[in-house]
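Please, structure for the following, as tokens.
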Amino acid sequence: MSDYHGRFGALLKQEATTLEELYEVLMKELVALKDRDSDSVNTLSKEKESILDKLEKLDKERQLCIESESPENKSTISNEIDSLSSEIQICLDKCKQQNNINGGIIEMSQLFNEKMLDIICGNFEKQTTYSASGKNSKASNQHSLGRA
């Protein structure tokens, strides 16, 4: 394996490992969200940000590695590198899916908190009409036909 393949393969392995770390953090975040553990969510958010920064740096290094090589080296990527690329894509898809799930839980929690705040503030008469995004929307007291 050439030096190019070695460097490129090592970068891909680091990316794959880092994506696995990100997935683990996302799973911990899911548990913290379910447990409504805001301290853990904040800590995990910082850890997630750090991992995303690391992934961004690795991506830049990988791009520089590709740009600095001759066309011959670029076209002779080995099976190991193809396999690592596939592994990275699978892990990236898992991370995206889990992040979307966690985002949905956060959004539902916000809606729940808004509803509880309405109850605490005594807004019992507030109509529960929802917008397309699932949030309460203000409904007028008069029906449109009644205003004619």
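The mean pLDDT is 81. The longest strand covers residues 129-130.
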